[in-house]
Amino acid sequence: MRSTLSKIAAVLTAGALTLTLAACGGSGAGSATLRVGTLSDAPPSIYLENGRFTGYDNELLRDIAKREGFEVEFVGTEFSGLLAGVANGKFDIGSSTISSTEARKKTVAFSNGYNTGFTTVVTAKGANLKDVAALAGKRLGVVQGSVQDEFAGGKVAGAQVVRFPDYNAGFAQLKNGTLDGWVVPQDIGQKYLDQNPGVPLELGYTVEDKDTPSAFAVAKKNTDLLNKLNDGLAKAIADGTVARIYAQFYKNTPLSKELQQGGPGLPVKNVGV
């Protein structure tokens, strides 16, 4: 009898330990609450409003989490350290309009894509920086570690690339005249102009970001969470939730056909996953 009771106690203890670990979060899709690294200053995609992280990316992630049975806790961070934070377990998910480039796939795994976009250069009105050749040798600001950083440093001849930790810092420098151009996702640049109609700035050169849709980032080993994100996203596309949330934040930009209700989605092929 004593042996049987000991075995029962051991099973109950193990079960309690499993539940405790699951409730703590931080490492797997079965966790009650997952930490999400995001930004606070990049509307309409990701931003802080009245103390709450919101935007298209984050509201979509909240919907996916509800469908898949976990909760999310958003934590503000700088983009330059976001993917490393996901890879080393500081964050379970990265949510920050992250373009799923081949270089980044070496560090993390990506969910299927939930948005496509464009890179644009915000300039002073009348600067006439409408093509890559006109940008040659110019002083261009970027968010460190972003796709726009790669663009300015690798595709603009002789560009003087100035790196910032966030979007607000770059816009401030552009207004002060210390930058020739501020390279950002087009939706962020347009949103800033819409919110600041008196500022003498305009959109200059713009290029489509092809084959690298925005996606949520997870650690490569966390395939369970990756599958849950993809499952929740597919369901949100199928029932029109993606289209509804997108329309809430993007008033004048059409949603990709692949993401409209019944669409096939935007598949991402990861490396080594």
TrEMBL record:
<dbReference type="InterPro" id="IPR001638">
    <property type="entry name" value="Solute-binding_3/MltF_N"/>
</dbReference>
<keyword id="KW-0732">Signal</keyword>
<protein>
    <submittedName>
        <fullName>Amino acid ABC transporter substrate-binding protein, PAAT family</fullName>
    </submittedName>
</protein>
<feature type="signal peptide">
    <location>
        <begin position="1"/>
        <end position="22"/>
    </location>
</feature>
<dbReference type="Pfam" id="PF00497">
    <property type="entry name" value="SBP_bac_3"/>
</dbReference>
<feature type="domain" description="Solute-binding protein family 3/N-terminal">
    <location>
        <begin position="33"/>
        <end position="253"/>
    </location>
</feature>
